[in-house]
Amino acid sequence: MTIVQASHLLDTKHPAWRPSPNPFTMSKISIDIYSDTLCPWCYIGKRQLDSAISAYSTKHPDTEFELTWHPFLLHPKTRASGIPKRTYFSAKYGPGADAFLAKVETTGEPLNIKFDWGGNSGSSYDSQKLVIAAETWEIQSRFLDLLFRGHFEESRDISDRDFLVECAMQAGLAGTEQEAARAKDAWEEELYIWVEDKPIRALERGQTALSEEWFGTGGRGFS
After folding, report:
1. Where does residue 172 rank: exposed (0-12), middle (13-18), buried (19+ CB within 10 A)?
2. Closest listed residue to residue 206, CA positions, set 215, 214, 197, 195
3. What structural domains does the chain harbor?
């Protein structure tokens, strides 16, 4: 589930602003995304968004992007782990599980996503704490790429501590296992605020859920 809100603005006083070949036309697009690392559609949406940003930046080199990924837990009260992925989807979608997975696979193919439903799954709670802990959106993006690819293409478990530490260190979010553990623990209260309050406030500001698969894209994806 993903909510996308973008603002197109010119702000030469913003700390992230940098001179361009034509500073008078420098613009910035800020995007807030609400996403669950447990959701395959969020992986697809991120890959499409990355592609759209790359294409837009090529045509509009004076535009700067700033993305902020916010947590949205599909199962906020669940802390389970070690659940086989196919068992999870069968419990969630019943007789329609195979059709759901087939649709996800078909949608991911043009994006070079090769979904693999092997391995276990579990709560995305700890992974979301590390998403919040990332100091820049570039680190957030690298961390999410590693999480999504590992969980959905390499049979890794999103609730596995060793997997999370590995991704955090590779993304530059933490230099050691101890730093990754401290970052995760430090954001416990902040995650509670995001899960319980801020998604509701976002909806009150006019961001609306169009379906379980797509928030803010109308099911069309990003182009």
Report:
1. middle
2. 215
3. 3-11+26-204 (3.40.30.10)
